[in-house]
Amino acid sequence: MRTDTNTDTSSPFTGGGQTRQDQTANRRARRALFGCALVTILTTLAIFVVLIDNAASYFFGARITELLAGASLSQEVTFTEFFTGTRWAPDHATPAHGIVPIVYGTLVITVGAAFVSIPIGTATAIYLSEYASDGVRAKLKPTLEILAGIPTIVYGYFAVAFINPVVLDPLADAVFGVSLGHYSMLSGMLVVGIMTIPMVSSISEDSMSAVPDSLRNGAYALGATRLDVSTRIVLPASISGILASYILAVSRAIGETMAVTLAAGANAQLTANPFDEIMTMTAYMVKMAQGTSAVGTVEYQSLFAVGLVLFLMTLAMNLLNDWFKRRFQEEYR
Amino acid sequence: MSSDTGTETETSRPSRSGLSDSASSGPGPTPPDTPTGLLTGSDLEYEHLKNRLFHGVLVAASLFGVVMLALLVLDVATDFYVGLTTYEVSLVDFVTRDGSQQAELAGFRGAIVASVILMLLTTILSFVVGVGTAIYLEEYAPDNRITRLIEANLANLAGVPSIVYGLLALAAFVNGIGLGPILLAGSIGLGLLVMPIIIVSSQEALRAVPDGVRNGSYATGATEWQTIRQVVLPAAMPGILTGTILALARAIGETAPLIMVGALFTNRLPLGPFDRFSAMPTQIYIWAQQPSQHFVHLAAVGIVVLLAFMLTMNAIALVLRSRYETEY
After folding, report:
1. Residues 6+ apart with CB under 8 A from A176
2. Where are the transmembrane segments (chain A) (predicted)?
3. In percent, how much of chain A has pLDDT > 90?
């Protein structure tokens, strides 16, 4: 934002071009533009209200407004069951409301994806920032950024049409002698990992490039090799940006929807077998929205309870990211 | 790394002592008190080996992303080709027919038209408010708590998963005010989703206009609003439009919010903003899920059409940027 001297509209320039109408128009425009800015705040509030309101009817059988008006509070789903139950089937004939399996699904995909994107993304960033010639960087960087621009549905297709049947199925058959279904946890981890590589690499690279050359040259003058400079000078000096990129990638992986739905499937189970089908929170939401659950049914409301948990998880990641940036930011002049 | 030369090294480079440790643990450990201070041959070789290995690992990691991209493109291209030949999907029929239960008769026209209408509505809904917010933040906003709240909130909104915007549109617009699963409801979801992106890129475009330009206008006695309307906005417009088109190119591939809104069941030609719809990405999702390989290959053809739209939008943005961008 600008903080220059022109915020005062009753400045000494009034004798010249500015008429009273001009100044009124200026004030009106300012107010209208502030209104635009408020829309962003309203969006956040609306997300909170919508999620909490509908989640309230999931847990208590009444909306927030009804609860405030003194509606009888009937606990439909207990928090204990929701947060500790290990079976998730709100739409089943004998419903179960334990969110653990789908939170586990989301977390296991996120961790698996981080194992792909963090090492590869960081190494790519070091290569781009410290090793690559200008010509290579000018080609490699935009190429990798294409990965971030491809729609997630295409990654989902890639998983279901290539990674799972062509790469993982023969591998699983040859090494473990098991045959893969249509979906697998491992392909979900892989595609989400691949699509988050450019987030890690480009943000980390920006932060590494911001490290001043004087620090590098100081180390070179002491006889350090390029490896020493990369790992002992540049990495520590840019650690805040690197960690921020990791958090962003993880946050993106948590909220990732289409790729995991098509890759990992929709079977809510607690399994450690990477060749099994699992369900993430987002995949559950897609599956529910595809069904014909009417407004007011517990299936419909469960969407928002899951959505609230998902939103809070990504919100926590974003706040952590903010905190990291403020806490560890190194300023170079 | 050179071997140490006694106490002088200890005092002049204390932070790098760990480095000499690792060097001396190499195949040819040198006594730490060698008076020459020069590298012995084996030490240097070890360092070179380590560096070459590290370099190799970095190149391999960088190539991983490129190889994956190539595989993805190759896979889609192959399936596209197989779809056209083995399954005899005619491109003309594909873009002129609507959805069907029979793979032989299914087409993409309704989805293409729906996506185009969606993008138009999304632009109408998000462009004015988005650019307005950017102008307020860059040109008017005082440095106070409300402004900081808006900025922080903006960063947070950009990190909200797209599916949550879908939930918002579902609860507030599809069911809340009873719009139903129509194009307008979908574009509200997408509009809120791209708003933070449009705001941030517009802010960058406005920031690129130097203060000298503004001050020149103020010196003639213009108000802030006159300056913005007649000087700053025209100068920043190519950048703003580029950012908006890039944001829309992202929005056209967004699937999750549309599924939440309910854009799944109809693949007919929508005629206006109040029609039910299935857009390109949701239609691809439906087809990709089918057990029939014919439908899966239809999905590949659909992906090629979707990517063609995205590429065109990106190309337009690039042309806009290179042709109209003002250099200061």
Report:
1. A275
2. 32-52, 102-126, 146-168, 180-200, 233-254, 300-320
3. 54
Other CB atoms within 10 A of residue A63 CB:
16
End-to-end CA distance of chain B: 46
Nearest residue to B196 via CA among B235, B238, B164 = B164
Condensed to tens digits (0 to 9), the pLDDT of residues A34-67 reads: 999 999 999 999 999 999 998 988 888 777 777 7
Chain B: closest CA distance from residue A266 (Å): 12
Residues 42-61 of chain A with CB under 8 A from chain B are 43-44, 46-47, 50-51, 53-54
Question: Quick one: B223 exposed, middle or buried, by C-beta within 10 A (0-12, 13-18, 19+)?
Answer: buried
| Chain B residue numbers touching A132 (CB-CB < 8 A) | 62
Mean pLDDT of A131-150: 91
Q: Which residues does chain B have within 8 Å of residue A248's beta carbon, measured at their own beta carbons?
A: 159
Mutant choice from B162, B163, B168, B283 vs A, greatest count of A C-beta within 10 A: B163
The strand pairing partners of A97, in sequence order, are A88
Q: How far apart are CA A224 and CA B159, in angstroms?
A: 40
The Cα A143–Cα B62 span in angstroms is: 11
How many other C-beta atoms are found inside a 10 Å radius of the C-beta of residue A124? 30
Burial class (CB in 10 A: 0-12, 13-18, 19+), B90: exposed
State ipTM: 0.88
Domain annotation for chain A: domains and CATH numbers: 15-76 (no CATH), 96-328 (1.10.3720.10)
> By the 8 A CB rule, do B213 and B291 touch?
no
Is the Cβ pair A29, B79 closer than 8 Å?
Answer: no
What is the C-alpha to C-alpha distance for residues B116 and B20, in angstroms, rounded to an integer? 63
SS3 call for B267: coil
**Contact A26/B61, CB-based, under 8 Å?**
no
CB contact under 8 A, B154 and A322: no
pLDDT of res. B40: 62
Q: CA-to-CA distance for A239 and B64, rounded, in angstroms? A: 23
pLDDT above 80: residue B9: no
Q: Which residues, 6+ apart, have CB-to-CB distance to B303 below 8 Å?
A: A153, A154, A157, B76, B80, B284
Q: Is the dihedral of CA A14, A20, A22, A25 positive or negative?
A: positive
Q: What are the tens digits of pLDDT across the range B62-115?
A: 999 999 999 999 999 999 999 999 888 888 888 888 877 777 888 888 899 999
